[in-house]
Amino acid sequence: MFDNLNNYKVFYTVANTGSISRAADTLFISQPAISKSISKLEEGLGIKLFSRSAKGVMLTEEGKILYQHITKAFDNINQGEEEIKRINDLGIGQLRIGVSSSLCKHILLPYLQDFITENPHINVIIDCHSTVNTVHLLTEGKIDIGLICETDIPKGYKYKKLTDIHDIFVATDLYIDNLKLREQEETPASIDNPWLFAGNLTSLLNNDNSTSQSSDISSDAGENKLSIKDILEKSNLMLLEKNNITRTHIDNYLSTEHIHPNQILEVNNMDLLIDFASIGMGVASVVREFATEQLEKGQIIELELEKNIEKRTVGFIYSSTKNKSTVLEKFLSFF
Fold first, then answer.
1. Rounded CA gap, 99 and 102, in Å?
2. Please, what is the average pLDDT of the chain?
3. Euclidean distance between the first and final Cα of the chain, in Å?
4. Is the dihedral of CA 117, 133, 259, 180 positive or negative?
């Protein structure tokens, strides 16, 4: 059958035009080539397809049966071509994106909104998973592209940076103040402090000249200043769960800075960490870009670190070996 496809096209054209010469003009081939194709088809089928006359050619009864089926076949081919053209013109297609819920909400959605506005006929499917699982789904071919925090990229895949993110620690002012008060109660100032005694003695000896000085000394002595290391070690430190790219990054930082938290609360969602910190549950490790609104409103404050946590990048990962679909090409060129 496949060997006869060109012959069937010739047969279909001759039947439509009713003339070998007109068929030759339509197909831009010679009349002898037309006659040869018809003869070859007739020999292969063992039947006569056309009867010839001075007015042209006419289909035989067998030729009419074949023509009906060939017409349906060519109509289906034409419909397929038109559908493909329509899909290409309208940008119809499907795109499967793997991404964590936090990256989706805070980074992907703003871009995705503009992309969908410009490409309304593309069906976008979002599959929410951690970075580790997103990479796994991509290698299994279950998604077309992933948005991840930069990590070790498997061979055969490409990483396209989208933006930087910064890990920070946040809490409420009230939580930090209460933490200082609690630590002050647990470590009261020693009454054997000679400076406290000297200050008190001076105030007794000279009430007129030393009141303000005594107040300053007492205030300094009573103030319990906590270092950032103290805060992170003594607070209720809220982190993402283990086996998470972000958690690993934070654990490495704490280890490098020799910070050993006494109490850790693990949460499986970055937005919950931000919410928990906002209601004063403790100190939370969050991404600054994800907590912009709460920071700007003063619901939480960023704790000043002696050494900032190394910034990370977020980007798209996709196969560098497979042919990219038209939809994926369009999506990547959008960013």
1. 8
2. 85
3. 47
4. positive
